Amino acid sequence: MLGGIFSFHSRWKDRQDTYMHKPLPLQCTSLNFRGFQFAQAMLFAIEEINNSTDLLPGISLGYKIYDACGSISRGVRVALALANGNEVVSSPSKALCARPSQVQAIMGETSSSPCMAISTVIGPFHIPLISHFATCACLSDKTKYPSFLRTIPSDYYQSRALAQLVKHFGWTWVGAIRTNDDYGNNGMATFTETAQQLGICLEYSVSFFRTDPPDKVQKIVDIIKASTSKVIVAFLSHMDMDVLIHALSHHNLTGYQWVGSEGWIFDSHTAAMDSHHILDGAIGLSIPKAHVSGMREFMLDVKPLNTSSNEMFTEFWETLFSCKFKQSKTATVNQSECTGNEDLTGVQNSFTDMSLMPIFYNVYKGVYAVAHALHSIVGCNKTCNNKGQLDSFTILQHIRNIRFKTKEGDEVYFNENGDPAAKYEIINWQPTENGIVDFVPVGLHDASLPADKQLNLQNKSLIWAQNSQQVPLSVCNEKCPPGTRKVLQKGKPVCCYDCLRCAEGEISNITDSITCVRCDPEFWSNERRDACVKKEAEFLSYEEIMGALLTAASLLGTCLTAVVAFIFFRYRQTPIVRANNSELSFLLLFSLTLCFLCSLTFIGQPSEWSCMLRHTAFGITFVLCISCVLGKTVVVLMAFRATLPGSNVMKWFGPAQQRLSVLGFTLMQVVICILWLTISPPFPFKNFEEFKDKIILECALGSAVGFWAVLGYIGLLAMLCFILAFLARKLPDSFNEAKFITFSMLIFCAVWISFIPAYVSSPGKFSVAVEIFAILASSFGLLICIFIPKCYIILLKPEKNTKKNMMGKGPPKFILKM
Description:
alpha/beta, Rossmann fold, 4 domains, eight-stranded mixed β-sheet, 28 strands
């Protein structure tokens, strides 16, 4: 039993399912006589084999043929029906998996995309799928499509042959149109690759599908109108070509030389649709002509179809003879009534057109390939042993390895990819006096020969576009405007040159410039790349939003610090101010004011003095600030030690020692800064590397060691202060300042630890903003954590601002039991 999948219809009705009930079967429309012709070719081969005494004697071939309607999903559905059968079986479920497939091989489908889907589904079951017209090179991949074979050459060879044909006539500037499916996309991809190797340039490459909206086809028409190339390579199916011809006819776009694939180049229906003679002179590749004795007569013998119980018979018969049966729902008053005995003689339509005989022959060869494989498997001599089960994998292996000659003398075999030998005829469309196009063979292409001998054009006169006798010229002549340079493709002068836009920072100010000139470091190319303009200088300024916000934050911190200092001065005699070392507190507030103000030195255009001032002022003021905090921390620790019996530790860290420690720590940072400024000070620097189109005005560090020494010294003091404050955080007093110092140092350390990676990774002015943010954040942290709690008590909780409360002599919080 052989299966057949053909598209007796080319379209289907779109239906929006509501998911409220089971979806109805696909409703097919647009009867396609080609599907009937392919099916008739299959039946002719089966009947011929069944009547043969030499091939499969004693075994009859049967068939199951389904209509795929051109739908991929329906194609997969009917393929599964052929593989599994749709009869109701009462045997156990295990038998359903164990029994052999319903068909030994499947003939079809006509297009590449349905074949890919079907072969993917039935491939794991090793059921052979033999196509007569699916040419996509992707189907040669046996890892994806292990059971696919075909009797038509792969587009791998056709695409290269088309590129060689275009090269032969010297066309180096061409347009390309393809069907937007696997056939067109894969075929055009191979053509494009080969064309580039041969020095051919594509001006445009567009795709569409016959079901696309009209505006998409109109865009393709507009592209053709706007193009300068006079040669168009069309990798289209005949149905898509019909749609395109219909659109081109509205605009009367003649004068273009068309180069076609086998999908449409020898299709008489497409030629009949070309009423405006747009395709006159077209040249392309077709399957070599074929003749099978008896096939034409068999296919035109439609009387047996009249007895068919197939539900498609009525539609077929009415379309074939342009009549309607009485019971037909679509019958109209003006149409003649069908009797069922109509004579096909004199009928002229696509069913009676035998121009596709090479494709019918491919179907014929596919059926015979299966028959020869079965003949070999069952060990036929005078009779065949048909008692054993046929295994689909064995059948597939035998089909791959068969080699036979048809009755017409053509040798049939498949290579390792399941493809036949690639031979093409070169066809030229030559209009005759009565307006009918004559497909004239003008040469051959044989992919089995060496590359320089594959293309063989005969000495025949060719007709070109607009009935010209001269080979059309299609080369690229556009001049490269200023801002671009000429680039030869792969160094081959025969191909037209591309106009490549000058790279960033380069210009060309003459037409057809060969090179682009690089701008000076302080200049950059404009948008048109035809002049150098001065680069924009970038730095963190007061006028921009980020600079203004940072300035406002700096001034706000300064004002807050001044307010806190005023509050402390106003309440300097109160216990909370006196208890927290008012001298160090005022010095700390002074240093915090300097910290807030030193951030302003980072904003504005860098100069020599600002570069040296910003880092040194920042380093010294922060060390002064941390030294004061460190002094306050030590005071807290020493004060607790002094309360112990017999301790006189406070005499070693009195006010004089505190002043000296602050001075000593600060002088150390001053020495580091002086050494930095002396050896290799910071200086203004124009950074051309960070951004290509901008100059970053920044302060170079001079000595990176000096910069990191300043930061490292600040970090060392901060860590020391944090450790001491952490140790003193639980000292038993009512107002433990060590806790607040601990929090402030924790914030300070967190800010500056996160500052390092942020500073290193920030580009341009943002690195300056990161440093300012770190200064402000750490300054605010110190101000808020150390002074705001005190201000809160001073202003809002004056009842706690007493000596008794500061000494922790309030009511006892616990009773120690002995």
